[in-house]
Amino acid sequence: LDRLGFGPFSEITYEKPDYMAVQSDDVDLFFDQEVKGWIEKNSCKWGENHFPEQEAIPQDLDDFILVIGQMLNDEVVNHQALGGYAHLLWGVIEEARRVSSKPIVVKMHPKQAKESPGIHQRVVEGIEKMKLDNVHIFSGYSSIHQFLPQASCVITANSGSGYEAMMHDVPIISFGHPEYHWETFDLRKRCEMSQALDTDSWYSTERTRKFLYWYMKEYCFYDYTSAVKRVRYLLSQESDQ
Q: Are 174 and 187 within 8 A, CB to CB?
């Protein structure tokens, strides 16, 4: 629940929350227990082990740039953006390939091929037409958790999979101004890609972990108690207007 909206159109997208105020001991315990459990159970927003399929990733494919594809008919890449998501996706892949020698893994949204095969095929064909070397496309109904341990960084517009990337301490390059852009490289121009891929110059595990803790424990709600807390907060904010 949010006063403004959701995803890249929410209150915390525009007003930076005070997530650095959370206690480091609480964050460490959160990662040691809850986050570890989510990874082990292959959890996502749809539940535990929702994507049981394991795609065949070559053993020598490691330390790669992971590009996360999103549903092209999803509101967060259409009505909450200026449009042209497919072209933006193709552009960041092409630019990453130009400035980096690392392998590029493109993980398409697991539901795109099942629910919109025609759209899915056009996106894949757009990548293939660029004839870029060392670019690998995965389109299976599989979990993002399978790919993140070997990824050096993630590039995404505003996918919710960014939160899974945070669980694995993988730096995120975002180009769709998501809620969590505060702890990503906020990519606004293709010419910034080289700087973005230099993750040692800007990424902080501490800050990112604190954001994830704050988001999951203070902002989101997941049971009756946390829902009541969230509603009361929103009502208090309205009364202050």
A: yes
**pLDDT above 90: residue 230:** no
- Burial (CB < 10 A; 0-12, 13-18, 19+), residue 140, is middle
Rounded Cα gap, residues 169 and 165, in angstroms: 6
- In order, the DSSP letters of 69-91 are P--TT-GGGTTTS-S-HHHHHHH
Q: What is the pLDDT of residue 155?
A: 98
pLDDT at 241: 56
Q: In sequence order, what are the beta bridge partners of 66?
A: 105, 154
- pLDDT, tens only, 109-130: 999 999 999 999 999 999 999 9
For residue 31, the 8-state DSSP code is: I
Q: What pTM value is reported for the model? A: 0.94
Instruction: Fill in the amino acid letter for 87.
Output: H
CA distance 9 to 6: 5
Q: pLDDT band for position 239 (50/70/90)?
A: low
- Map residue 185 onto helix, strand or coil: strand
Q: Of 167, 173, 180, 105, give the one whose Cα is nearest residue 142.
A: 105
For residue 97, what are the CA distances in angstroms to 64, 114, 127, 133? 11, 28, 12, 8
